């Protein structure tokens, strides 16, 4: 069985993280992804450590399953090759600063003339238009400008960037979703279209709580540590030997009474200051010292066992080593082995996508720089060895 995107070809002109994360997701679902890199230099992420031998772990983590072709997009001969690959592709993904693709005459209107059915996806910091349209951006910039850093971290602490590159990764995922939508639309119309994804837009889209609260109340949200803005208890607690999280959102079955009895504070159950979830949250400052003192009395294992027996949602705060060795993670095979040309079998994160009929597969690791140049240009474009030699001598590939 093959992935759901088998037969779809992606021309990947992106680099670093947002675009490569998008195209990796498409590759996991069976698409053929042709990654175009600069001759001799490659994607800049190849230089980011740590390294396994001379291979970047960072690069390998976001480029599995792709074919690397070295083409100088700024070389006229190289650009001609790109044009021919566009004719043979279903999707083009790029994340250059706005204006560069137009200067190269590879903007959407030009590409549409070459291949009217192509889906052309652009990822930029701020989108293709507007007052910031020509500005470059990086993950931390959009996390800062999009408000994410203002609501992350401890109260009264400095702004904190998310521990994962949420600016880049959310943009990559939204782009993959948009591409799938455009593919479905093409089935009906036969036409491709342009997709314009702004990293800043994506930051707003994932703040379902903070921005909506501000729009409806006028109050500016701030950082709450691990707490939830609308639920109590819903946070991380220090125990006798570590940390756990408890998540009690209220609803059909309110286990507040069970929680209070478990922490030896039945007096809280009938207290009108804490009678309902929203009231508890508003009076959180009075509950915090009680919670903190109570949870320190037992180990994480003891609390988790007790809370789980009461149906209270909870879990340990794992470090990365504990995550990798977690029995559920292992059962779901989220850590897998992939084949790498020079390193052999290496450990890698698996795809979280699960299909019953067309499985997503992670088997091949990231490519060596230019590993598939001759194969792709020969098999897809019919370029022979003599022409390949000429193109190399001109610095085009």
Describe what you observe in this structure.
- The protein is an alpha/beta fold.
- Helix content is 37%, strand content 15%.
- The protein is built from 17 helices and 13 strands.
- It has helices at residues 18-28, 57-62, 76-87, 100-103, 108-114, 139-145, 166-189, 199-205, 210-217, 256-262, 277-282, 284-295, 300-309, 320-325, 327-331, 373-379, 385-393; strands spanning 9-12, 32-37, 51-52, 55-56, 67-70, 91-94, 119-124, 194-198, 234-238, 243-247, 314-316, 335-340, 344-349.
- The strands form 4 sheets. Strands 5-2-1-6-7-8 form a 6-stranded parallel β-sheet, with helices on both faces. Strands 9-10-11 form a 3-stranded antiparallel β-sheet, covered by helices on one side.
- Strand 12 (335-340) and strand 13 form a beta hairpin.
- The two termini are 35 Å apart.
- The model has no long low-confidence stretch (mean pLDDT 96).
